[in-house]
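Example for tutorial group B:
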């Protein structure tokens, strides 16, 4: 039987250390870990719960090994934080689910990712990455603009203040983000149209788009942004539907192109929003998508197209096992 180690960051572990709810927003709940354990076990694997990177270090130092690691660790510090566990596993030559360190490092840096995607011919909003307020004077992007930290997830650092319509608002928002998140800020054209996320499974030639999920904000939403505050109360402010119109299908096609371009592995999401002309623009790619069975976008998308959580995890595991040649054992 193939032994699968499960690595993850639990919110409660870091809250006990004094971190805030926003600082641990990307981390997981026991519900997610229980669901993953049950799904992977039901597929015929032996699951070993390891925990975060510190627990993984202790696990490896004790001489323990497993055949494959199902890694959903987000990490805590630095733009390369999502790559920390995969790097450690590479050093021990232990295969793992999801993308390699270079891909995780690239995609967490939204500015660098947009640059590469744009050079490949995929439409994305005009942007500039700034590290200090003085750089705002040289931006020629018309208002309204949208600002966010260059390397955060779960919409951290994205809220009503992210949409700015003049220079004063821009300077105030960027100043706040620079001081709060201690990293550069992405300034880009605001995309006013529909918002989509495309679910992806597979790797290389086996890549496929599961479907296109449209995020629809209702009249009670405090702003026209799928923000951190909106995501926290998604049942109150947002609804989700599978979109199959020509624009949505175009997003799915573009998502596969992006996934292959960055060499994504096993599963993830690619996000798009329409510009004022109704054309889909690439926002970001998430190769380490959330897997909470209730509220994460990828499981929601799967559920709406009739794929159970177990079936979704099965597709992910099949891709990883095939890549790692464990199916030849």
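The residue assignment follows.
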């Amino acid at each position: 039987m193939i032994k699968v180690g499960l690595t993850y960051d639990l919110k409660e572990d870091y809250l006990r250390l004094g971190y805030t709810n926003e600082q641990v927003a990307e981390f997981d709940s026991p519900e997610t870990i229980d669901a993953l354990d049950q799904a992977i076990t039901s597929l015929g694997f032996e699951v070993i719960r390891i925990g975060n990177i510190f627990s993984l270090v202790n696990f490896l130092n004790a001489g323990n090994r497993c055949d494959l690691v199902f890694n959903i660790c987000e990490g805590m510090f630095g733009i390369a934080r999502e790559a920390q566990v995969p790097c450690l596993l590479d050093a021990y030559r232990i295969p793992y689910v999801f993308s390699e360190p270079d891909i995780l490092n690239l995609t967490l840096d939204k500015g660098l990712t947009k640059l590469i995607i744009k050079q490949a011919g995929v439409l994305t909003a005009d942007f500039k990455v700034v590290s200090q307020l003085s750089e705002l004077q040289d931006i020629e992007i018309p208002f309204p603009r949208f600002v966010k930290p260059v390397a955060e997830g779960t919409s951290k650092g994205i809220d009503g203040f992210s949409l700015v319509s003049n220079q004063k608002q821009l300077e105030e928002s960027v100043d706040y983000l620079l001081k709060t998140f201690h990293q550069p800020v992405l300034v880009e054209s605001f995309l006013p149209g529909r918002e989509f996320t495309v679910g992806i499974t597979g790797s290389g030639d086996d890549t496929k788009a599961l479907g296109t999920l449209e995020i629809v904000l209702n009249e009670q939403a405090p702003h026209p942004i799928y923000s951190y505050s909106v995501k926290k109360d998604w049942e109150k402010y947002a609804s989700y539907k599978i979109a199959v119109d020509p624009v949505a299908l175009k997003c799915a096609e573009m998502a596969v192109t992006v996934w292959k371009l960055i060499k994504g592995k096993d599963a993830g999401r690619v996000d798009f929003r329409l510009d004022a002309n109704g054309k889909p623009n690439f926002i970001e790619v998430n190769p380490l998508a959330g897997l909470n069975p209730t509220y994460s976008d990828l499981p929601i998308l799967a559920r709406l197209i009739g794929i159970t959580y177990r079936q979704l995890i099965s597709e992910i595991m099949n891709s990883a096992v095939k890549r790692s040649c464990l199916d030849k054992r």
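The domain at 126-189 is CATH 3.30.1490.20 (Dna Ligase; domain 1). Compare this with the pattern of hydrophobic and polar residues in the output above.
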